[in-house]
Amino acid sequence: MRILYPVIKPYSETYIKVSPLHQLSVSQSGNSEGIPVIVLHGGPGGGRSQRLSRFFDPEKFRIILFDQRGCGRSMPYGEIEDNDANALVDDIEVIRKYFEIKKWVVFGGSWGAQLALRYGFKYSQHIFSFILRSPFLGRQQDLDWRYGLSGGAAQIYPDHYQRFIEKLPSELRDDPIAGYKALFDSANEFEQLAAAREWSIWKGGVSHLLPLSDAEHRFGHTHQALALAKIESYYYSNHCFMAENHILDSVSLLKEVPATIIHGRYDMMCKLEGSQHLAEHWDSCQLQIIPGAGHSSGEAGVIDALIQASETVADWLLEQ
Question: Which residues does 175 contact at the CB level (< 8 Å), separation at least 6?
Answer without folding.
Answer: none
